[in-house]
Specification:
Layout: E1 3-4, H1 11-17, H2 22-34, H3 44-56, H4 58-62, E2 66-67, H5 72-84, E3 99-101, H6 108-114, H7 119-125, E4 139-141, E5 164-167, H8 174-180, H9 185-191, E6 205-208, E7 238-241, H10 248-254, H11 259-265, E8 279-282, H12 294-310, H13 314-328, H14 355-358, H15 361-369, H16 394-402, H17 414-424
Antiparallel strand pairs: 1-2, 3-4, 5-6, 7-8
Helix pairs in contact: 1-3, 6-7, 8-9, 10-11, 11-12, 12-13, 12-15, 13-16, 13-17
Protein name: LysM repeat protein
Keywords: Signal
Pfam family, one: LysM
């Protein structure tokens, strides 16, 4: 009995199976469609030939196919017919190079897909985590053979004519670099093909438009940023080596201290970049002081530590603690009256430093104390620069440094500051 099949073969496959029994054609179709998309694709030239063949035989292919009993002779004939079909060309995945230099817009997953690799493997080869950031010029390993060769940033393009160059340091931002060289942030971004969301890293060389021309000799290609040598931990602190995926806040939480405490112990700011292999100091867990938050205690510890380093008497340290509490509630704030900023509300317009400098809690504390170790030199006057400060009242001594519109406000912090100092030692 003859049966008519109502199943239609997909249009892209009709030309291949014309004249082939439906049972055989269906088997071939299942075999082809079962292959994963990423494993193989049809060669474009062969696909074009198939399409042309389909066009010439379209009318015949539209007719319903019939199924006949499959005899041994028919099976032998069908097998020969299938064997004679044109082979489907397979395009191999592009071979992965040993290393790959990251371009703008790249992501780890896109790079992995381009070379038929697993994202997880690329991350593992480069010591990265799922939250890691990659940047243009960074060299990634794509094969295990490249594992012995350290990944180094590609040499940046030579600065354009009339421009200088600058090697990025820890804590730098594009805006601070631009301000230091007297150019606009947009000019630096444009000269280096960067955007507002671009990441810069220590050791990277960038062009400074309009700056003095660089020396005639070509600069050596920058090396990968070397891990910072372990800093001597502060009293009660421990050294910690950063691994891929770490953040300052995560490190601080893991060790039971505040983020500001870790930043302050290492001279870092919220915009600083850390990298695997870098060693930082993690201060010991903060003591509990009634009435003070963890952030306030961390800043009080910083003021006490620096005071001890400079040899400031206890009364001078207590004055610094009371002044910081009055000015900022012992917080390193990013706002204040007019252009006042930071722990001691120092004003850039009055020569206390740049915006970034007065928000550096450690530097701001040294500037408040003044003396021979004052980062501002003679530009500003700290507590140790005030003649006879030891003989002044608590309020008078603080006011001699701060020149506040409310000089009597410091007095209420004299007793609390003394208790904080006693608790912190």
């Amino acid at each position: 009995m003859r049966q008519t099949s109502s199943t239609r073969i997909p249009r892209g496959s009709r030309a291949i199976f014309t004249g082939v029994p439906v049972a055989v054609a269906g088997s071939i179709a299942l075999t082809l469609t079962a292959a994963p998309a990423q494993a193989a694709t049809a060669d474009s030239a062969h696909r074009a030939a198939l399409d042309a063949s389909a066009a010439t035989r379209g009318a015949a292919a539209e007719r319903p196919q019939t199924v006949r009993p499959l005899t041994a002779a028919a099976a032998q004939t069908d097998a020969a017919t299938v064997a004679a079909l044109p082979a489907v060309a397979v395009v191999a995945t592009q071979a992965a190079p040993a290393t790959y230099t990251v371009a703008r817009g790249d992501t780890v997953s896109r790079i992995a897909a381009r070379f038929g690799l697993r994202t997880a493997d690329v991350l593992a080869l480069n010591g990265l985590g799922w939250s890691s950031v990659i940047y243009p010029g960074q060299v990634l390993r794509l094969t295990a053979a490249a594992a012995s060769a350290p990944a180094t940033p590609a040499a940046p393009a030579a600065p354009s004519g009339g421009a200088g160059s600058y090697t990025v340091q820890r804590g730098d931002t594009v805006s601070s670099i631009a301000r230091r060289h007297g150019v606009t942030t947009n000019a630096v971004l444009s000269a280096n093909g960067l955007g507002w969301s671009s990441i810069i890293y220590p050791g990277q060389r960038i062009a400074i438009p309009g700056a003095a021309a660089p020396a005639a000799s070509a600069p050596a290609a920058p090396e990968a940023p070397a891990p910072t040598p372990p800093a001597a931990p502060s009293a009660g602190g421990t050294a910690y080596t950063i691994v891929a995926g770490d953040t300052i806040s995560a490190i601080a939480k893991r060790h039971g201290v505040s983020t500001n405490a870790v930043l302050g112990a290492n001279g870092l700011s919220a915009s600083s970049i850390i990298y695997p292999g870098q060693t930082i100091t993690v201060p010991t867990a903060q003591p509990s002081i009634p009435g003070l938050t963890a952030e306030q205690v961390a800043n009080a510890q910083l003021i006490v530590r620096i005071g001890r380093e400079l040899g400031v008497p206890d009364r001078g340290i207590a004055i610094a603690l009371g002044t910081a509490m009055q000015e900022s509630s012992l917080r390193n704030v990013t706002w204040g009256d007019r252009d006042s900023l930071g722990l001691f509300q120092q004003r850039p317009s009055y020569g206390w430093g740049t915006e970034a400098e007065v928000q550096d809690a450690a530097r701001a504390t040294r500037v408040f104390y003044g003396g021979a170790g004052d980062p501002n030199g003679a530009r500003t006057r700290g507590l140790l620069d005030v003649p006879g400060w030891q003989n002044l009242t608590f309020t008078q001594a603080a006011q001699a440094v701060q020149i506040s519109a409310f000089p009597d406000a410091y007095a209420k912090w004299e007793a609390p500051a003394a208790s904080w100092l006693a608790a912190l030692g």
